[in-house]
Every structure is written in structure tokens, then in C-alpha cells.
Write a structure and sequence with these properties.
- The protein is an alpha/beta fold.
- The chain has a single domain, classed as TIM Barrel, CATH 3.20.20.
- It has 15 helices and 10 strands.
- The protein starts with 13 loop residues before the first helix and ends with a helix.
- 52% of the residues are buried.
- This is Dipeptidase.
Length: 386
């Protein structure tokens, strides 16, 4: 019988359960938008209250107040005060997940580089993945791998040389736009649906030269299509969904999915309740698997992966504050996440085996499950990073 927690009811037989555990433990499992390993349900209440007291003096500065809890969780985890940081990651079976830089400004860039490096320096079991082999070695050695990524580019301005600096630090995946318009292109919340700018084309060329993967997760439709046209290396969408299943601005059209696949890229499916199903209070991992299966039917099993983006490594009171005061400023519609809802079957990252179990329940082969759970991401990493 499986010793994993939070098992979603897929109606598996005992033999299927044994197969799922075997596959989950032998595969290289990758979550390319990994907000974990902690989630509100995994953070002790005493820690949540301590963070609330420490943040109280900053309540008059909403952006700082909203971002502080996650930063404090990182520091407390690095100091060993939140033991669940390591235990949840190991329980999840996730081999590699991204560690995110924030590039909104030069100040946030420097600060987040220090915060990310602290995670690697304080955990002898966490390695910085600069090559695909680093991830394979982490699996062999019983370690975990962190992939440095970023979701916005505003702080870079038009200084392409900063990309060289970030690559030297370890940046390996960079999203071209967030929700709104920037100097590179238009995000998914821009009504104009403008594509890649002249500068954006030069930006992609530099990413290709350095070996930084072009990510279109939050990009608008035309920006995504242009990126696929201009990039000489595979393009990805690290965390998105299928527009044909749920017509949300954060989901990709069939045309975009096909274009990404034609570059040799991968579409990562997220587990955000408001973006994959019409009722965030009753979204299950089966709904997430529906998006994965749609991509497989459309472009094949070689072009889909996982980038959950949820639940956040945060505390509940902070998530509520973010939804009420910050999300509208970032292009999210009122009531449109992020908040406290979670996908049933992925309330905690330690429940990640439910992806493997769900794929077993849907009849996928061992080989296909290995691709979906991380092999497809690893193929792209090997091609671009070496």
C-alpha cells in the first residue's frame, strides 16, 4: 500500500497503485513553475503568526507588505526554522523545480539574486541546475535541483548585456512578458494583442545565443506566435492551460500550442483553480489532467509537461491580502485569483504523486508518463543548455 499522503480517488487497483509509486520514484519529475515546496497547508500556524507580527510595520506599503511573507518564509526555511521546507519537497517526489528571480527593477533583481542564492547555500541537498546533467545527477544522488527562471523583464530596460550577467548567475529560462505590455511584446492581458517589438526580436536573439530558454507563459497570442517564428531554439510555455477547455486569458489557443510544438518546445500545464475550470471551489486534479490530455491529442505526448504555479509558498492571510489589494494592479480581473483556493488532489506539493497516479488511471504507458512528468522538459534542457 502506498505511503504517500493526500491520495486523490482515481479508483486504482492495488497493482496500479504499486505501478504509480514505482514510476513516480524512478522518473525525473519536474515542476517548471514550482512555487513550493511549502504551501499554506504545510506551514505551521506558529510560523504564520510570527510572520504576521514581523510584517505589521509595513502595512501602509501594500507592495512591500504583500511580498514580505514569501521572503520571510525563504529566510526561515534557510535557517532551518521551517523543517517542512525539506520534508515537503522530498515527500513530493519532485526532482527539479524552478527558483524564481524577480526582474521588475534593478533593486528587485539584486535582492532576489541574493534570496535565490541563499536557498542553494543553505541546503546541501539543493543544487543549482546549469545543465540537464545537473538534474540527472541530482536524481542519482538523492538531491533536488533548482532551475533559475524569471517571469518579467522590466528591470532590464534595453540593456541586453544584463542577460549575460544573469546567465552567468544561473538564469536558464526567461519569460518575455508578464500580463501587460513591455518593451519586448504584449502580455496576455493587453487588448491590442500586439506582437514582438523590434527590440524584442533582438532580445530573443540574445537569449538564443546565451542558451536561455524563451518562455511565453504569460505572453499574448501574437507575442507567442512571433516568439515561435523568431526563436532559433525550442520555445516553451512554462505554465499555461488550454483555451479550448477554459477560455481564460492565461490559456493558450490551439494555434499557439501547435506553434510551440513545431519549435520542438513544451506546453506546461498549471494547477491554478481559476484558470483551468469555471468553478475554483470545485476544481480537481482531473480538470488539470484534462488540459494535459488535450495537448497530447493536439500535438502529441512529446510536447506537454507540468508547471503547477500553485499553491503558493505563502501564508493564508497574505494570499487574501494579495487578491484584494495587489492582483488588480497586475492585470488580474476582480475575483480572478490568486487567493486561497486549491486544486483537489494538489492542496500540498507532497501530493504531487497524484499526477502520476492520474496518468496511470488514464491508461498511459510507462514511457509516456516519464515524458509528461519531466522527460519532455529535460529533452529541451539538453538541447539548449547541453
Amino acid at each position: 500500500m502506498s505511503t504517500y499522503e493526500g491520495l486523490y480517488d482515481f479508483g486504482l487497483t492495488e497493482l496500479e497503485e504499486e505501478r504509480a509509486v514505482r514510476l513516480h520514484e524512478q522518473n525525473i519529475n519536474i515542476d517548471l513553475l514550482f512555487q513550493g515546496p511549502l504551501s499554506p497547508n504545510a506551514i505551521p500556524e506558529s510560523v504564520s503568526e510570527k510572520i504576521k507580527v514581523l510584517c505589521e510595520p509595513y502595512k501602509d506599503e501594500p507592495m512591500i507588505y504583500s511580498s514580505m511573507p514569501a521572503k520571510m518564509i525563504t529566510k526561515l526555511s534557510a535557517s532551518g526554522e521551517i523543517a517542512e521546507y525539506k520534508s515537503e519537497w522530498y515527500k513530493s517526489g519532485i526532482t527539479a523545480g524552478n527558483r524564481e528571480l524577480h526582474l521588475e527593477s534593478l533593486e528587485s533583481m539584486i535582492t532576489s539574486m541574493a534570496e535565490v542564492q541563499l536557498q542553494f547555500d543553505s541546503a546541501d541537498w539543493l543544487v543549482k541546475a546549469l545543465t540537464a546533467e545537473d538534474i540527472r545527477a541530482a536524481k542519482r544522488n538523492g538531491h533536488k535541483a533548482g532551475i533559475i527562471t524569471a517571469q518579467e523583464t522590466d528591470g532590464l530596460g534595453t540593456n541586453l548585456d544584463l542577460l549575460d550577467v544573469l546567465h552567468n548567475f544561473g538564469l536558464r529560462i526567461l519569460q518575455l512578458t508578464y500580463n501587460n505590455q513591455n518593451q519586448i511584446g504584449a502580455g496576455c492581458a493587453e487588448q491590442s494583442n500586439a506582437g514582438i517589438t523590434n527590440y524584442g526580436r533582438r532580445f530573443i536573439e540574445r537569449l538564443n545565443k546565451l542558451g536561455i530558454i524563451v518562455d511565453t507563459g504569460h505572453c499574448g497570442k501574437q507575442t507567442t506566435l512571433d516568439a515561435c517564428q523568431y526563436s532559433k531554439t525550442p520555445v516553451i510555455a512554462s505554465h499555461t492551460g488550454v483555451e479550448a477547455i477554459y477560455p481564460h486569458m492565461r490559456c493558450k489557443s490551439d494555434e499557439e500550442i501547435i506553434a510551440i510544438a513545431k519549435t520542438g518546445g513544451v506546453i506546461g500545464i498549471f494547477a491554478m483553480p481559476w484558470f483551468v475550470h469555471e468553478d475554483p471551489n470545485h476544481t480537481t486534479i482531473d480538470h488539470v489532467l484534462d488540459h494535459i490530455e488535450y495537448v497530447i491529442r493536439l500535438v502529441g505526448v512529446d510536447h506537454v509537461g507540468i508547471g503547477t504555479d500553485w499553491p503558493m509558498s505563502d501564508v493564508l492571510w497574505s494570499l487574501v491580502y494579495f487578491k484584494e489589494h495587489i492582483a488588480p494592479k497586475l492585470g488580474f480581473a476582480k475575483g480572478d485569483g490568486p487567493s486561497t483556493e486549491t486544486v483537489a488532489g494538489l492542496e500540498k506539493y507532497s501530493y504531487f504523486i497524484n499526477f502520476t497516479r492520474g496518468l496511470v488511471a488514464r491508461g498511459y504507458t510507462d514511457e509516456d508518463i516519464a515524458k509528461i512528468m519531466g522527460g519532455n522538459w529535460l529533452r529541451v534542457f539538453e538541447e539548449i543548455w547541453g
